[in-house]
Amino acid sequence: MMAPKLESVEEILGSRARVKIFRFLALNEELSISQIIKLTKLNHSNVTRHLDFLINQDLVQLKTFGRIKIYRFKTENLRAKSFKSFLNIWENMF
Question: At what angle do helices 33-40 and 44-56 cross, to 10 degrees?
Fold first, then answer.
């Protein structure tokens, strides 16, 4: 299996919806899809599409417990960890 093509920062952060999802996962570590939908106020198909992209970029991990799916922010990924550090600095400035 080939490793996914790592996208540019513009591609990853170029969607407001994707940034909202990524931000909430960074702040909460783990969320179900219904929690993400409620927090972001986005529809299911939009959230699913962006989560698939983030999983493909190895920034988010899907954990399955029977029928329950939990999305986990991958703190061990340097790019994800850097985003979380940036977010903490940005949101705690004011």
Answer: 110
* Residue at 83: amino acid letter: F
Q: Which CATH class is domain 14-91?
A: mainly alpha
One-letter amino acid at 76 equals: E
Q: Which of 90, 91, 58, 53 is nearest to 75 (CA)?
A: 58
Spell out the domain ranges in the chain: 14-91
Chain segment 5-53, per-residue pLDDT in tens: 778 888 888 899 999 999 999 999 999 999 999 999 999 999 999 999 9
The two beta strands, 60-65 and 68-73, are antiparallel
Instruction: Estimate to the nearest angstrom the gap between the alpha carbon of 68 and the chain centroid.
Output: 18
* 0.85 surpassed by pTM: yes
d(Cα 20, Cα 26) in Å, to the nearest integer? 10
Are β-strands 60-65 and 30-32 bridged in parallel, bridged antiparallel, or unpaired?
A: unpaired
Show the tokens assigned to 83.
């985003």
